[in-house]
Amino acid sequence: MSRKQGKTVTIFVTSRALTEGIVTREARPVPSMPNYMEAKALGECGDRGRTTWFSPGAYRLDMATAVVRAKEMQAKRLARMEKQMAQIRSLTFKEVQ
């Protein structure tokens, strides 16, 4: 029995957009899991020879929605960091004798 390979599509990976940017991959749908994609894992030197699976929330099918998602992630991260900075600024220190 031969396993039929799915059609390859371009996906835009946003799961690590704040550290690596939006990454483009050629991927195939995973037959047993709807909306999941599998693609070759790439490293600094190119192909690593293994595959990575991307869940529905980790990628987008077009660059425009990928950019929107990355900007949402950026806004959430900035809000969280501003809250942390406010907490640090509100700290008071007393000298103990």
Explained architecture:
It is elongated and about 70 Å long. The protein is built from two helices and five strands. The relative contact order is 0.18. It has helices at residues 17-20, 63-89, and strands at residues 9-13, 23-29, 37-43, 46-54, 59-60. The chain has one domain (9-89). The model has no long low-confidence stretch (mean pLDDT 87). The longest helix is centred in the C-terminal third of the chain and has 27 residues, at 63-89. A five-stranded antiparallel beta sheet has the order 4-3-2-1-5. The protein has 97 residues and is α+β, with helices and mostly antiparallel strands.
Concise synopsis of the structure shown:
By secondary structure, the chain is an alpha+beta fold.
Any idea how many domains?
1
Shape: elongated
Tally of contiguous helical segments: 2
- Write down the overall mean pLDDT: 87
End-to-end Cα distance, whole Å, is 80 Å
Class from helix and strand fractions:
alpha+beta
- Major beta-sheet overview: 5 strands, antiparallel
Order of helices and strands: EHEEEEH
